Amino acid sequence: MKPTRKELKVAIVHDWFMGKGGAEQVFKEIFSSFPQADIYALFNNMSSELQKEFLGDKKITVSFLQKFPFARKNHRYFFPFFKYAIESFDLSKYDLIISSSHAVAKGVKITDGQRHLCYCHTPVRYAWDMRTEYLEHVTNKGVRKIANWQLDKLKKWDHHSANRVTKFAANSVYVSKRIKNHYLRDAQVVYPPINTEFFIPNGITVKDRSQYIVVSRLVPYKRIDLIIRAFNKMPNLHLKIIGEGPEYLSLKEAANDNIEFLGFTGNEQLRKEFQKSKALILAANEDFGITSLEAQACGIPVLALRKGGYLETVKEGKTGFFFDKQDVESIVEGVRKFEKDRHTLEPESARENALRFSRKRFREEFKSFVESALNNS
Predict the structure, then answer these.
(1) pLDDT at residue number 248
(2) By CB atoms within 10 Å of each CB, which of 51, 251, 266, 273 scores lowest?
(3) 1 falls in which pLDDT band (50, 70, 90)?
């Protein structure tokens, strides 16, 4: 007789805990479905406050990389060791392994009889699709050559280790197509959860909203630099940037006085900033984009790059608009068009669109995904 879901010995493997991003929000909902699970990650650099929010009193088993000098704050520099670290975990005692993977978590080793379900946020970007963007700031030719060599090795391993997964779930149709292309595997789409009970409108009218907003980790591929340069050209418009990351200081130095940096904020302040914003600005080629729906849940429209997951979360002309190119001129043109046409967007439409991605819906769909995989095993 098979054990029930509550009786299963479960391990949840997450790449790393460094802050509060979209992948961590998905992890939180997966963990809530399997509170008995043990948690594994390459690194843990969360504050005690965030760890309490995401894990309660549950401890995280971390890899040997946690002990490397500077690894907790500069973890990406250690990517040549990621595959060895993830394979070092002994998970042989578990019935079910769930990986929450945007890098190497899906590469854990399994034994006969185990089931490994992967919620794939993206095939590792810097090995497959966005290597140029990640390496463009590496000016030393020797270092770039070594990095490319190591990324080729990671890419080969990543393709091979996909065979360790029993069944894939993808966070968007966009990512499911990339899983098919890179891993030659099918993936069931289970859209990430949005906290639509917390992110709500507050009644501020469209005409009374006074600012634009960016909510993002401040890393190169998010292209916050382009948004800053665009708003430098529009000094009459106010932009607030919420988030932290390695580019914080350089971005702040490049910004004019109409651009304000708030750093990391708690949920309460984030919601307030959403509620008084004209629009959320997004310039990355994103796999899904949870923040686009958190804004919409507050009745706030989105102005985004016409690529990737945003094509699945933003309804053009109803909940936001798109700009076509990842450059300054296209963003400026998009903002000016938005200023002209934003009165045509109804806050109710944005809210209604976000409700399609609720946490309740995620729990039901993910439970169905797990049970289907277990019943067919």
Answers:
(1) 94
(2) 266
(3) very low
Which residue, among 347, 342, 332, has the nearest Cα to 236 in the 3D structure?
Answer: 332
More confident residue, 5 or 135: 135
- For the stretch 228-256, pLDDT in tens is 999 999 999 999 999 988 899 999 999 99
Q: How far apart are the first and last CA of the chain?
A: 13
- What single letter denotes the amino acid at residue 219? V
Sheet strands side by side (includes 115-120): 60-62, 38-44, 10-17, 96-101, 115-120, 167-170, 187-189
Q: 246 and 272 in contact (C-beta within 8 Å)?
A: no
d(CA 59, CA 203): 41
Burial grade of 112 (CB within 10 A; 0-12, 13-18, 19 or more): exposed
Q: Is 39 helix (H, G, I), strand (E, B) or coil?
A: strand
Instruction: Please state, as a whole number, how many other Cβ atoms lie within 10 Å of the Cβ of residue 223.
Output: 20
Strand partners, 239: 212, 259
Report d(CA 324, CA 330) in Å as an integer: 7
Query: The pTM is what?
Result: 0.90
More confident: 147 or 369: 369
